[in-house]
Amino acid sequence: xSNTKNxxxxxxxxxxxxxxxxxxxxxxxxxxxxxxxxxxxxxxxGQLAELTGMEAESVSSFEQTEEGxxxxxxxxxxxxxxxxxxxxxxxxxxxxxxxxxxxYRRVRRYERGRSDARRPGGR
Length: 123
Description:
Blueprint: H1 2-33, H2 37-52, E1 56-64, E2 68-78, E3 87-96, E4 101-111
Antiparallel strand pairs: 1-2, 2-3, 3-4
């Protein structure tokens, strides 16, 4: 009887450890499946370039949203000489939680050498 009880306790203990390890593995896998902010930035730039044919020069805005990620990306739309006359554009880019692009739109177009118009209040 004592051997049966010890065997059952040993099996219960092994199942408990196995369950904890499986839980830890699942937690690690879900953490690995979520991309880091840098991975999201790289994916967004690459996907936007693939869709538009224009390389991203910089990311001027980046934030996590309830649905995933929102970025504002600056691209060179039309290269001119001198470079300060080249046409730039700002694109609003949206990605899901896994970093896949779900939408984009151009929100602004400007010459590289021009700054934004001054707004009242110094902003």
